[in-house]
Design goal:
Structural class: mainly beta
Strand content: 35-45%
Order of helices and strands: HEEEEEEEEE
Number of helices: 1
Helix content: under 10%
Low-confidence stretches: 2-10, 14-26
Oligomer: single chain
Distance between the termini: 66 Å
Largest sheet: 8 strands, antiparallel, barrel
Mean pLDDT: 84
Number of strands: 9
Shape: globular
């Protein structure tokens, strides 16, 4: 028995770059383990209000520039009470909590997802003394 072979294809007569569209850079791929909530979280958010002990507060000088950005590569960049942080993030399986590990110190922070909509986010943060603050965010346009 003889293996069947395809006839040789003629060499292309096109010159490099001729007749081919410029390739666009590939968009960041959504990691396979991401769910709809993870993807919705991945954007820049600007704090609009805080809440402590069931009392909402307008922004003050310490937190007026606070923001958070969750990136598809699991990087997080945020400002909290005027202090800037970078790190990595992940959600738990039911997508209720965002776990953050701060770069350099490996400090762990945990945020409970209270609200997650296309343009609105509310995260509850509890410090090591269980003192909590809810941060309300709008998506950055």
């Amino acid at each position: 028995a003889f293996a069947q072979t395809k006839p040789a294809q003629p060499a292309s007569t096109k010159k490099p770059g001729q007749g081919t569209a410029a390739k666009k850079p590939a968009a960041a791929a959504v990691p396979a383990a991401f769910g709809a909530k993870d993807t919705m979280l991945c954007k820049q958010w600007k704090v609009t209000q805080t809440e402590q002990f069931a009392v909402k507060h307008d922004l003050n000088d310490a937190n007026k520039n606070d923001a958070i950005a969750f990136l598809l590569d699991k990087t997080v960049i945020f400002t909290m009470e005027g202090k800037k942080y970078t790190g990595t993030w992940m959600t738990d399986k039911p997508k209720t909590w965002v776990h953050v590990t701060i770069d350099g110190t490996n400090e762990k922070m945990r945020f409970k997802i209270m609200t997650l909509e296309k343009t609105k986010l509310a995260l509850e943060y509890r410090d090591k003394d269980e003192f909590y603050t809810i941060y309300y965010y709008d998506a950055v346009k």
